[in-house]
Write a structure and sequence with these properties.
The chain is an alpha+beta fold. It has two domains: about 5-150, no CATH class; about 155-350, no CATH class. Helices cover about 40% and strands about 15% of the residues. A four-stranded mixed β-sheet has the order 1-6-5-11. Strands 7-8-9-10 form a four-stranded antiparallel β-sheet. A three-stranded antiparallel β-sheet has the order 2-4-3, with no helix packed on it. Strand 7 and strand 8 (about 220-225) form a beta hairpin. The two termini are about 15 Å apart.
Amino acid sequence: MGTMTDIDFTPLKGLKFNCLEGCGFCCSFPAEVRQWEKNFQLILEKDAGAFRKWDDGHPCLDGIYTFKQHNDRGACIFLKENKRCGIYDIRALLCRTFPVKFFFGWRLQLYPSMSCRGFSDDESSDMILLGKEAMAEIPADQINKMLGESKEMYASLPERIANYIPPEILQNKLLEYVDKMTFEPWDISDVSRAEFEAELSSENFIDLPTYLTEGLDWQVFKLEGDFVRRILLNRTGETENIDSIVYSNLSVKPFSSEAVEAISRYLRLIASTDHFIGVVYRKAIEQKADGNQLPDIATSELDKVKELFFLKASLLAEFEKREHVTEKTVEDTIILYDGYLATVPAFGMIL
């Protein structure tokens, strides 16, 4: 297995997590399953039609499947009525390691999936410990194989980006930028607004903004005509409209000082993830940027994250009939936003 200098646990530090009884929210997303997993064949023996092939033509995704869902938008077909896993003893790797995520770039980094309410200062399960337990679930030869491939990819960056800046330096620049950020919620770019509207309008149900309430209900937000509808999603895929707001009335709300501090902490967590650095490198390659522009691309991407966060926080506040965005609203918005952020394409490989 790669040396400890190849493995970074930094984004997990200080976080505590405990799985919530009766939640099952992570099972509402189609979990990836790979053929090399030790339980792959055992799951097929349980249900020969358990998987859907992930086929988008990308060679890195060859041999990857996802669990089928009820009605193509509800929970995994193995989630039972009591929201417990029906194949818990042979569940897939991603299900075993959640909420720990793995990003293979110039090193292997473990970082948290924050789209869950299981994070709390009061919980006893330290995320570093969970990260080490998650590492033990992955065959060492697969870690070395993926790490070798990702390091090779990153070694090619100096030739692909003029005046290339190493990832550690770029990451430090981003963290310094977060510390100097101003938080003027009304200053939202047209690009961020358009991206927010496109996400709300997606025809693919799985791509719509999805949220877990304090009562552990699964909710989905969808823009239809002039209205944003808040929709209850059931385990078996049935939906029910709860309420709606007029989209044109949605404005970015003021933030309390505690809310601004909470946003800043979350942005620091994002900036410390190798996945986000991979997003920046991918953008730089697509834009054929020279080195002088690379820090600008990085800060621009982080500004967009901040602006989309403002919009989603204001959306939640509007539905909850709040005039201001509070620290509590920010905590809720992290749950709404983090799952989306995890799907942004990056230079590197996510496991």
